[in-house]
Amino acid sequence: MKASQIKKSIETLIPIKKPAFIWGAPGIGKSDIMRQIAEEQKLELIDVRAILLDPVDLRGLPYVNGDKKAHWCPPDFLPYDPESRGILLLDELSSAPPMVQAACYQLVLDRKLGESRLPDGWAVFAAGNRETDKAVVHRMPSALANRFTHLNMEADLEDWVSWALSHNIPIEIVAFLRFRPELLHNFDPKKNDKAFPTPRSWEVLSAVYGQNPDPDIQYELYSGIVGEGATAELMGFLKIFRSLPNPDLVLMNPDQADVPTDPATLYALCGALSNKASEQTAERLFKYSHRLPPEFSVLLARDSVRKCKAIVNTRPYIEWVSKNSNVLI
């Protein structure tokens, strides 16, 4: 399932308080989905790293009060306010030792730990890597596995582009991954690479790229984030991107501006133009898009809408849709 489908699934399960486990490769964005949902629904999010826990951490410590009976002091990282609403995420649960996983049985199914019970406004979810990812993973006991709805997450370029354009990821990086979509997530568990491309590592690289690092260190720095192969291709693409005609000049004369023939240049130019999308530029933007090869015209229209949703109400966009009605946007 792609990220948007995982998100819809979690949103379906939250109201009925049914737990789910999100499985996926490292760096694919499993935890980020839960943060997005919590933010959108104004829910508190408690992210418990299960791999850091001992079994006793969940149950708490025993104490004896005046009735000479043993009671338990529950952990302070669990929610107790009966009026609160939120998501309890047991992250990296598949990497936790078997005894810690076993300690979660009652929490996941019965929504309580010993004498402590989760408030009604809270839902329990978990996330972790798969055994095939060669991460630190312990086989999940069948009794615990049966308590979850299992959702398998895969990287999807269109989902990532939608997220990237709304989170100020540099348009150069978006355009590059449009050109080389297989590099969005290129993790091979059979290799022992320390750095490899994932949605998470591209986000890190984007932040580093925004700092305008010295050219002398760019290759080594980027290689330490996404690996040497992806960095070599990115550096070549960035040279093309920097040599593009000024997108403002293209929009000033959309009927006469040159239309590149090289695919890499077209991806880069469409990325630069979509970054200029607005209700004011719509007429010139779609004039130019009509001159592009069909697949790049669609690409420019899609990313322009993602950048400025109000553009769908403009006359140029409506006319573009009518001329391209056979294409699903």
H/E topology pattern: HEHEHEEEHHEEEHEHHHHHHHHHH
Number of helices: 16
Cα-based radius of gyration, to the nearest Å: 24 Å
Shape: elongated
Q: How many independent structural domains?
A: 2
Beta content comes to 5-15%
Number of strands: 9
Q: pLDDT average, as an integer?
A: 89
Distance between the termini: 20 Å
Helix content range: 40-55%
Q: How is the biggest beta sheet arranged?
A: 5 strands, parallel
The low-pLDDT segments are: none
Look at the helices and sheets and give the structural class. alpha/beta
Largest sheet strand order: 2-5-8-1-9
Topology summary:
Elements (H helix, E strand, L loop, with lengths): L2 H11 L6 E4 L6 H11 L3 E6 L5 H5 L1 E4 L5 E4 L12 E6 L6 H6 L1 H6 L1 E2 L2 E2 L4 E7 L13 H4 L3 E4 L4 H9 L5 H9 L19 H11 L5 H12 L1 H15 L4 H6 L10 H12 L7 H8 L4 H14 L7 H9 L6
Parallel strand pairs: 1-8, 1-9, 2-5, 5-8
Antiparallel strand pairs: 3-4, 6-7
What does this structure look like?
It is elongated, with a radius of gyration of 24 Å. It has a 5-stranded parallel β-sheet with strand order 2-5-8-1-9, covered by helices on one side. Strands 3-4 form a two-stranded antiparallel ribbon. Strands 6-7 form a two-stranded antiparallel ribbon. It starts with a helix and ends in a 6-residue tail after the last helix. It has 16 helices and 9 strands. 45% of the residues lie in helices and 12% in strands. The chain has helices at residues 3-13, 30-40, 55-59, 98-103, 105-110, 142-145, 157-165, 171-179, 199-209, 215-226, 228-242, 247-252, 263-274, 282-289, 294-307, 315-323; strands at residues 20-23, 44-49, 61-64, 70-73, 86-91, 112-113, 116-117, 122-128, 149-152. The chain has 2 domains: 3-152, Rossmann fold (3-Layer(aba) Sandwich), CATH 3.40.50.300; 157-323, no CATH class. With 329 residues, it is α/β, with parallel strands linked by helices. The model has no long low-confidence stretch (mean pLDDT 89).
